[in-house]
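Form 7-S
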Amino acid sequence: MDQEIKLFGGTSNPGLTVEVCQYLGVQPGKILAKTFSDGEIQVEIGENIRGRDVFVIQSTCTPVNDNLMQLLIIMDAMRRASAERITAVIPYYGYSRQDRKVKPRVPISAKLVADLITTAGAHRVVSMDLHAGQIQGYFNIPVDNIFAAPILLKYIQNNLQDHLVIISPDAGGVERARAFAKRLDASLAIIDKRREAPNVSRAMNIIGEVKGKTAIILDDMVDTAGTLTQAAVALKDRGAGSVHACCTHPVLSGPCIERIEASPIDTLVVANTIPLTERAKKCHKIIVLSIAELLGETIKRCHNSHSVSTLFV
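Output:
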């Protein structure tokens, strides 16, 4: 196998691709992606990749289906161009919330997407903060699920230090929140949330002491921000001194920005797994941290067959 990394980027997050290439000291691979007038996607790899170890960065964010289809077509083109190994680097894994059957006659779409990615030609997948850890088991190829924790922890340690309490917005996020609380020597609280419908939730109660403390709501993604903003109101009602939020994936759909701006949240810290919309860029409460160095180091270690887990010790 040729020792030079070949890194290509889809159209979902070109800025992140450029940052990762700068960290690795390589040029972005030449790729042309076009869309026909009827919506069909066409891809052409603009350089020789025969026998190469290739990586393609593509978040399956909005428009989710277009970005997913483009990723599949790119990998098929790479496979047919005789790439030795193809790694799909998916900072944000779309359909990850559909990871199990929550009621009769519904799909497990996260598993379907895993099958599509494998069939298209991926030999390995790198993703970040999967919504559900069991998604790794939906693949029959190696999956590296990396975490934005080192970046978020560094930000908190440098900017939010006094009387911290880490808030889990639901029972499913307790393990993540507990790990952060332990690293920060902070206390832990949990929001008792009742979900009435998809993208609709209501914060009911707070388990833990938050009065007079700096509350940090921790989650893997923020979508419509219903849970986040209701939790912030509940925390303020319980006497929290200030409320901040840290989320890896800024999905930020629907009325999210308006809700954040009208809420008592002081700052919303996110990673650049998904590029912000123009409207989101204008929100003064949103702070974006780059995952380029972490992602680039992961790619380098995968290429050289070195340990990735040691990044998170």
